[in-house]
Amino acid sequence: MKRLFSLISLTLTFFTPLILFGKGKMTTSYYHYYTPIYSTLEKIRNQYSIGETSVEIMQPGGMELVGSLLLITEKNRGIHILNIENPDTPDKRGFISIPGHFRMVRRGNQIIADSYKDLLIFEINDKGISLVEIKENVLSYNPVDLFYAMDNDNTNYEPPDLEKGLVIDWELTVSEYRGRLPHGAEQCIRLPAYSLLKEYPLRFDVFGDSFCTCSEGNLMIYNKQSQEGDSQVKEIEYNTIYEDYRLYRGGYYSWISADVRGYQLNIASWKDSDFNEIALNWSPRNIAEIHYNGKYIGLRDGMNWGQVYLFNPENLPIEKFYSEKESLKYHAENLGNNIQTVLTSQFFVYSEEQNRALYLINPSNGIMLDQISTGALYSLHIQDNTLLTIGTHSEEDDSSLYLQIYDITNDRFNQTSEGVLSSDWNNHDS
User: Which of 139, 171, 184, 351 has the fewest CB atoms lying closer than 10 Å?
Assistant: First the structure.
């Protein structure tokens, strides 16, 4: 026993100075991760509203132009309403509050917008904008997609507990600890850097008077059959080992990806009120955006620091399009994460984050027609030959957010107007 006490005494005598003063001293560390914020669908639906008071534009998404009325998505918050009859001085008319909103699509005089699991249908007429229909629980919803879509600076998150309710947002948590990780942080998941698209999956789209939704791996087709609203007319099941589908559409084609992160792409044609698969199982890794102009496909891929492709899918095994000269019309890579693309029958337009530039491509031959310097661009919208962009002036001048309008004539970008959307953008962006 005395030997034991002597050994303990000797050990403490020798190691205590190391613990207190040497390499063994425990230091305070900080662990950053995101935790879910929960609510219920009932509470969310009570927040849908159309207000005449405008709010600051902080995270702009897609745009839709209806006459002189410009609608701009505010990620996870709603839709800005602006009158751009005089585009040099945009007139903010109000804000539509839609929690969980990331995407809207125009159908005639209607705007269809998402909100978590719901679709909201708004009608625009001479009297203004009104909410005419809510389709409840028609969309698949994965709370991790919300995490991907927001501009989080950290990639660690606490797995959501769906029994606690609907995840409506993510909150940054900073925990102090010594030695072991704090409670909760041990369960955190780190997202792989290569899959950080910061994009929200496309879960619905419009086909003429019809629209379709992705829900629990199935495709639902709705037709506008009466004054009462849209009715479901068809459901298509797709068997897959993945959790969910990601939807893309253009012209008479629909693209359905069997993985919400875009690792697998299935192409199907929408014709004569039916779907017919024409190509399967192409893996571009991180599909972020797809357009179709009736002949060519413009695609944005999140891999390799951002890429864009322009190719012809006809009579081609889609897995090999990138190696077929006759199919691949244009390819650019190392463009950055914040890339925007639009495609029409005449033009393929994309922005580059690396060099802060906007490019105009002829889709039939892949020839670059024009290139101009820009600031950081967050949204593009093209209607006829008019291109609308939302972004900053330049890397040196990023304090304000602008709406810039270009007339594409003689295969050139011709800027026709510029209006300030936010004069304090730098503070919002940070």
Answer: 171
